[in-house]
Amino acid sequence: MEKNERIATFAGGCFWCMVKPFDEQPGIIKVVSGYTGGTVENPTYQQVCSDTTGHYEAVQITYNPATFSYEKLLELFWQQIDPTDPGGQFYDRGQSYQTAIFYHDETQKRLAEESKQKLQESGRFNKPIVTPIIPAKTFYPAEEYHQHYYKKNRAHYESYHIGSGRSGFRQKHWEGEHEY
């Protein structure tokens, strides 16, 4: 990792839907789909989906903070999820599809907590914001076929993004908000 690069890790349900919003932003160097937060080393997709590993589906974002700040990453993250759902995201249910912000240092922790509090106080949602902010653990890249799924399987990705309810939720709660 270069001197001017940082890492952010977010779980937002299905990682297929979490890559595209970040992938083409200025200052984003790479976005990797993977697994984190659990106890099994080098888990497979099947293991993680069984909800027996403790892992979340997540994305790890390498970014240049001078071009795209961590605060902007947090704003964009909140716009992709239902932060009031403790049981998963949209169509996908279970622990591996729950949301989380994994902080890599105390600054990220503080900024994430401030961002969460600001969202809670905004009144945008009528239920509590339940997305936890937890220390980052080892991140395991997912199998290659999961990487940049939205580019490799455009039709299936678009169908899933809409059919899962994610697209409609975003439109309802964030219409008019910029995606940077």
UniProtKB/TrEMBL annotation:
It is an enzyme of class 1 (oxidoreductase). GO terms for molecular function: peptide-methionine (S)-S-oxide reductase activity. It comes from the Bacteria. The active site is at 14. Keywords: Oxidoreductase. It catalyses: L-methionyl-[protein] + [thioredoxin]-disulfide + H2O = L-methionyl-(S)-S-oxide-[protein] + [thioredoxin]-dithiol; [thioredoxin]-disulfide + L-methionine + H2O = L-methionine (S)-S-oxide + [thioredoxin]-dithiol. Its EC number is 1.8.4.11. Residues 8-158 form the Peptide methionine sulphoxide reductase MsrA domain. Transmembrane segments: none annotated. Has an important function as a repair enzyme for proteins that have been inactivated by oxidation. Catalyzes the reversible oxidation-reduction of methionine sulfoxide in proteins to methionine. Belongs to the MsrA Met sulfoxide reductase family. This is Peptide methionine sulfoxide reductase MsrA. It comes from Neobacillus pocheonensis. The lineage of its organism: Bacteria, Bacillati, Bacillota, Bacilli, Bacillales. The gene is msrA.
